[in-house]
Every structure is written in structure tokens, then in C-alpha cells.
Amino acid sequence: MCGIFAAYKQPEVEAFKAKALQYSKRIRHRGPDWSGNIIQNSTILCHERLAIVGLDSGAQPIISEDGNYTLAVNGEIYNHIKLRDELKEYKYKSLSDCEPIIPLFEKYDVDAPKHLDGMFAWVLYDKKKDRIVAARDPIGITTLYMGKSSKSPETRYFASELKCLIDECDEVFAFPPGHIYDSNTDEITRYFTPTWWDGSKIPQKNVDLKEVRETLELAVRKRLMAEVPYGVLLSGGLDSSLIAAIASRETKKAAASISQHKEGLDANKELSGVDEKGSLHSSGFTSLHSFAIGLPGAPDLIAAEKVAHFIGTIHHSHTFTIEEGLDALDDVIYHLETYDVTTIRASTPMYLLSRKIKAQGVKMVLSGEGSDEIFGGYLYFANAPSAADFHSECVQRVKNLHYADCLRANKSTMAWGLEARVPFLDKEFLEVCMNINPEDKLIKQKEGKIEKYILRKAFDTSDDPTAEPYLPQEILWRQKEQFSDGVGYSWIDGLKEHAENAVSDEEFAKPKAEWGDDIPTTKEAYWYRCKFDRMFKNSKAAATTVMRWIPKAEWGCHEDPSGRYAATHDHKVSLE
After folding, report:
1. Which residue is catalytic, options 2, 169, 394, 406?
2. Does the N terminus or the C terminus of the chain have fewer Cβ atoms within 10 A?
3. pTM of the entire structure?
């Protein structure tokens, strides 16, 4: 992950350079390892680099051998080795996993993103044609914003974060995932068209548990591509625990293959990732490190310790106080660029943890976002009127991930120069699991089928005494907790109490006119919105990039997103 800023068709671009560098500096936290910029014609591209792959030769912007193409990328391309093999005619200048995008674009033009497997946001400039294209990964794991200014109608601005654009643009929007912009047409078009995208079409294929398991294992495996120390975020919930368990197995396999078969590295390319020089993308650790955070005695901390001991990670358990969380709120809202209640609640402990992880020398972590959307894991899904409604809601939640969990995972970690990778949002895994008959996903408490039953069952080896279990049974079948709940219920209670004291009844009764129909319904939401407005002077334009996460009211759900308000939540669950 990195940070990018670009301005296309910028009048007096040389004079604008000072501003561009100032805007790029605002996101230097995303890429503290290197800063680069280049002007081509009337276009400037700036890049703030976090080095994960191609450490010694991956500086950006990348310029093609003939000087025609200039590329700035934020992200990771997992199939870059395969692409290099397919696009051998191109003269590569670096070992960067991102450079194959240039020959890929030469070959496929605007269809190039279809051939990428990864998380990315990139801007590519063609000097001869004075043309710029920009693309974002299929689900929006990587952030990207686009802006326009009435002062310079032809100029198009792109940036990894909103804060780079709001001083310059009077129209700003989140660049849609799975789309590509082409200055030739000045249009944004969809390139990602999976079979499951139409939520009204109900899949008929029944679940293949082995396929679910093996596809997720492959998704984790490919995301261990790194030349720096990495770890896993481990809350002790089902999703992060599964990712950690698989990553631990793969890390042990890779370590064993290095020590026992150094001469046979080529045979392990798929397992651990090998660059064109035959160098294993080593994490720098022979054992996997896991990280957890919560208030003292929080459910997540207890569960995470149990998981870490079981799967054999070197575990780091961190605590925070309610006061520390409250003190961090302004910074969290500034970095997250949102006023959504759910996102802020969950982002604050993740933000605090990311700082501690980076201080321990880790640059990349695996995280468990996406599973709840794919499998209908939120407890309110138990209220779905039908399988068709269940599936439609899953599709819509996946489509909106870039406003919520993806945004949180990206910006909470990148605030400290830490990259988060999310295996559940792998394209192949999505293709498999979003095409499962929703009848198989339904929450049926009376039949013992709790949320995400088929995912749990796919990794349940209890029927096979010869198989090594992935997780303890009490973790594999642990009920869903919102991350903001799992770190300790008093965290949310403390936020509500503080908001109640910070916002008077008179203030709450008089929302600002510029908020339009987006009126906060609680004092907590009102408090966050006021903080957001103070931070972003062009808050009206900035607010267009925010979507609030709330359970589906039509299903009779409580408006507060905390899992405690779901009728199916068990308050008596114990992991002691």
C-alpha cells in the first residue's frame, strides 16, 4: 500500500507543483519509505511509498523504458509473476509487483484491470496521447477518490485520501470499485462484472465445503507475498481466527521448505511467492506473529489468546483504556474521513493497535474483513424474510464494503504505514461463495445453524480423527461479535455517555441546514458529524463520500449496529 496524488490537464502545472507536493505530503503516513513525483506535459503524478515487494527497486512513479508511460500505484498485485511471464517483451526496470500494469495496459488498454489479481488503485499517464486512465480494485479494498474543480473544468484530480482534494475541488467522490476512468471519453466504466453481481438472480448451486476451504486457503497463501515482516490481526472471532490459522500453517510450510529444500525453490512458487531472481518473499519471521487489542478483560482478548496458543503464533495482546480511545477520536475521524458511527467505533481500537504493530517492526498484516457480508454473518440476517432477501442483502453489503469495513481496514492501518490484506475478498473466493444457494447460508437457530454455518463447517475436522484441527471447537463455533463490541462492551457505552455530555438537547434538536436529509439520529452520530465538519472545511463536498452503516430496518432490526441488540445474541457466552 502507498499513497497517490495526480492532477491531469492542470494549467500552469509547474506552478501547481508546490501545491501538489503539499497535498501529497498529507498522505505521507501511507508511504513513509519514499516520496516521488514527475511532471509530464500538463499532468503531475505524486507517490508516497510503503515498500513491501521489490524493496530496492520499486520506487514510483514508474516510467516505462521508452519514457511514454508514467504509473503511480497504491496496492499489491498478487499475480505479478504470472504477468511478467506472459508479458516478456516489455523491458522491466524494477522488481515491483506493480510494473506489469504498464505492458498489461499496452496489450489490453481499458480492459487491463480485468487481468489483475490484487488490491489496487492506480493512475497511468500516456505522454504521447496526453491520456490518463485510473482504476480501482473490484471491491474497493484500496481507497481512491476523484475530484473536479469549477475553477479548472478540464482538470481531473485523483488521490488516495479525501484530504488531498478538498482544498482544490468543489466536487469530490469516492471512485467506484471495479471501474476504470479514461480521459479519452471522460467517463468511468465498470470492468468488474462477476456472475453474482445481480443480486436479484438467486444462485442454485449447493455449497461444496471442500471448495470453500481450499479457495480460502489459496487466498491466504497468495497474500503472504512480502519481503518484510508480516503478521495477522487476531480478534478471536471466527473470521480473523480462520485467517490466522491458515496463515500459520502456510508460514510453517514455507519455513520448512526453505530450510529443507533451498535448492528446490522453484517447486514452491505457488506456496510462498518467488520473484524472478528466485528469492523467496520472506517475512523475516520464522514464526507467525499475531496481534489483538481490547479493554482489560475483553472477550476478544481472551479468545485471541486461546487461538494463538492453539495455532502456535507468537502473540501480542494489547490493551487500551476508554480515555485513550476517546483521546484518539479526532485523529481517527481525520484519518478515516468519515462520520459513520459503526466505522468510528470499530476503527478506534484498530487504529491504536496499528500503531503498536508498526512500532514492533511489522509492515503488513492479514485481516478478516468481508466474511460477514459474504455469508450473512451479522446477527440481523437471522431476520431475513426469505433466502432471496438474504442473498440480495449479502450482495448489497459486499458492494458497499468500500464505504465501511474496507475503508476501516485500509485507513486505520495506513495511518501508521501498516498494510492490511483481506483474503476473504479474493476474487476467486467471492466467485465461489457468492454463487452458493442462500438456503445453505440461512441462520436457523432451531436446527443448530448459527450465522456463517457453512464457513464454520468447511473448517470443522471433528468428524475426521486423522485431520489436524484448524481451531478449537469453542472458537470455531463462537457467536458473532461486532469488533467494537468484542474489544469490550464498555467501549461503546463510554462513547455514548461522552456524546450525551458533549451534545446538548438544544443542539441535537437543531441539525445544520447543510446536512440536508442526512440527519444524525443519535447524539453520538451528531457528535461525530460535528467533528468531521470541523476537520474538513469543505465538509459539504467531503460528506458526499460517506455512507452510514446501519442494520436493515425493514427486517425489524434495532438501529444501533451493536450486536448486543440482535435478538439472537447470546450474552452468556464464555470462553474461560
Report:
1. 2
2. C
3. 0.91
